[in-house]
Amino acid sequence: NFIYQKILDVPGYIFEFGTRYGNFASLFTSLRDVYEPFNRTRKIIACDTFTGLYDLSKTKDPNFKENDFATPKNYEKYLENVFECKEKFSALPHHKRFEILKGDASKTIQTFLEKNQETVIALAFFDMDIYKPTKNVLNTIKPFLTKGSILVFDDAICELSPGETIAIKETFGFEKISLKRWQYNSRLVYFVVE
User: Fold this and answer.
1) Between 177 and 58, whose confidence is greater?
2) Phi (first) and psi of residue 123, to 5 degrees
3) Are 192 and 182 in contact (CB under 8 A)?
């Protein structure tokens, strides 16, 4: 709620990278229905492999192993049903305002952006935990951010997930951004593109 209110005057889509069970993407859908129910251009895009982590860096992701955070088989189909049900009860039930991108987000986001050149990213929520996909996605989405876009990280500044922090530092540089936190959450950090 705290973050969502900050993007109400920022046009664009909301992306969740590392959606797993879809908790945040589902929450963003509900918040959209509360704050801007008739905004047909506020799409929610959930991105995940649904098979867990892979291609880990031993030096930057030492606390994880292959397939950590995998979901049950065909979970993305269940998640699709959840989003469809939520949409049926929205103010615009005839207009699809969500998408699920299954696969390596650094590849699926590239394909999505090539097909959807109207894309502006209002909010990107990162929960991929590890270095390589976080860095790849950050580099890919950078041209689609606008002043006011917000990037949120679930695992930055955390000794269990150093890769996410390293990716932020290498892509944006800490001297060029102002990382912030919300006082009621110990894990989430964010910054606003200026």
Assistant:
1) 177
2) -145, 130
3) no
Residues 101 and 65: their CA atoms lie apart, in Å, by: 23
DSSP 92-135: -TTS--EEEEES-HHHHHHHHHHH-TT--EEEEEE---SHHHHH
Q: Tell me how far apart the alpha carbons of residues 79 and 182 are, in angstroms, rounded to a whole number.
A: 28
At 141-188, the pLDDT tens digits run 999 999 999 999 998 998 988 999 999 999 999 999 999 998 888 889
Q: Dig out the tokens for 42 from the structure.
A: 């506020």
**152: Cβ–Cβ under 8 A, 6 or more apart, which residues?**
3, 123, 124, 125, 126, 188, 189, 190
Rounded Cα distance, 3 and 124, in Å: 11
Determine the residue type at 86.
K
Distance of CA 29 to the CA centre of its chain: 13
Mean pLDDT across the chain: 94
CA dihedral 167, 168, 169, 175 (to 10 degrees): 170
Q: What local confidence, expressed as pLDDT, does residue 119 receive?
A: 98
d(CA 114, CA 19) in angstroms, rounded, equals 21
